[in-house]
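Lab notebook, bench 4. The sequencing result for the construct came back, and we need a structural model before the next group meeting so we can plan mutations. Quick request posted to the team channel:

Model the 3D structure of this chain.
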Amino acid sequence: MVEDLIKKMIWLGHDCFRIDAEKTIYFDPFELSSGPTADIILITHDHYDHCSPDDVAKIQGPNTVIVTEKDSAKKLSGDVRVMEPGETVEINGLVINAIPSYNIDKDFHPKKNGWLGYIIDIEGVRLYHAGDTDFIPEMSDITVDIALLPVSGTYVMTADEAVRAALVIKPRVAIPMHYGSIVGDKNDAVRFKTALEGEVDVVVLEKK
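Done. Here's the predicted structure in token form:
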């Protein structure tokens, strides 16, 4: 099931993914050319490269549900559902858990803002999109099949810190993100994959 879902995942750069499964799901749409209409859009926080109303408009239809936190919600329109860390909702049959996402040793993503990562249950697979975060204590309580983890450093975890996160979470598959756009490059993804050999399977998706 994990392998089947990964085949349905498209990395659109940075923290943006589309999942073409039972529902069409986007995470943090940014710098899109176009794309199929979303059933659900999950937005982690209100920085321009994660909450981009112009990009949301390209994939938003009359029945699209947007899930986000309070700051991003102010910039968006339509069916917008606000979540806080620790909350769980079910939307169109999809169970969504809001996970804390914040910085430990920098000030770009303060914990007090209540910004989010997400765990979704889809086609029998638990998938974690960490958002813009450092390696935080809450990760020790996360049990998932697939973990999407930032690796670029500067605003988020470095590749080495993401390795530590993956070793704590122990997903069946880890996928690096948050590189190759604003900060970081593929070397970060390669370093992440190399360091986890024999410990956690890593899939480095090619940008579409």
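The mean pLDDT is 94.
Will bring this to the meeting.
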